[in-house]
């Protein structure tokens, strides 16, 4: 099956490529802009399936279809939240909300295989989709946290955070001034609240921001060790299964 990925963030495109290849699909074409995609469609046979990001570096991806007639079903990959996506879900094969979950990716591929024959035309109403996206509701990520200290509440800005970690069944926030605060949230919940461009869960124990990485060292068993400016309580290790994704994330 011939699949192409249209995604302006190259690390995200490569990550999706690897996840699809893990499912047995060989992805040869990665496109990153409206202009590049238009040129490609004009010169190549259209693929069986397109993974399409909504916002590209030079405009909305729907501008591609103002210039060329699409002949392929599409699975949207987007950071728009579910409320905005719900409006056009029926017009496409499916959508995947970033960060893309591997199980959801496999379900979307199965949905495509069940709904469309090879080279079938999806019949997407791009004008209707564009109208629905005039005022999209974009996902908002947390930019501060409130923590309780005795009888007081302290507000900590996102750029003051050096890492999040779990210990003794608790979840903690560690700041750049070397202080620790207990949170009510779990690391799983924090993953959905933090901007994935800035924060990455390197293991079951740690979520770290890109800005706090002081040094990265090769560690045992094909893992990586991250050196943070002030956190020294435990080794901050990138788990082996996340090393490749972590490398893509840091660019």
Strands of the widest sheet, in order across it, are: 2-1-3-6-7
Arithmetic mean of pLDDT = 85
Task: Give the CA-CA distance, first to last residue.
Answer: 29 Å
Q: Into how many domains do the coordinates divide?
A: 2
Tell me the fraction of residues in β-strands, as a range: 25-35%
Q: What is the C-alpha radius of gyration, as a whole number of Å? A: 21 Å
CATH topology of the largest domain: Rossmann fold
Low-confidence stretches: 117-123
Q: Can you name the CATH architecture of the largest domain?
A: 3-Layer(aba) Sandwich
The CATH class label of the largest domain is Alpha Beta
SSE string, helices as H and strands as E = EHEHEEEHEHEHHEEEEEHEEEEEH
What are the salient characteristics of this protein?
17 strands, 251 residues, Rossmann fold, elongated
Tell me what the structure shows.
The structure is a single chain. Helix 1 (10-22) packs antiparallel against helix 8. Strand 8 and strand 9 (152-157) form a beta hairpin. The chain is built from 8 helices and 17 strands. The chain has helices at 10-22, 34-43, 64-67, 82-86, 102-115, 126-132, 187-193, 243-250, and strands at 3-6, 29-31, 49-53, 55-56, 59-60, 74-78, 94-97, 144-149, 152-157, 161-167, 170-175, 180-183, 199-201, 206-209, 215-218, 224-227, 236-238. By secondary structure, the chain is of the alpha/beta class. It is elongated, with a radius of gyration of 21 Å. The protein folds into 2 domains: 3-132, Response regulator (Rossmann fold), CATH 3.40.50; 144-250, OB fold (Dihydrolipoamide Acetyltransferase, E2P). The chain has a 5-stranded parallel beta sheet, with helices on both faces. Strands 12-11-10-14-13 form a 5-stranded antiparallel beta sheet, with no helix packed on it.
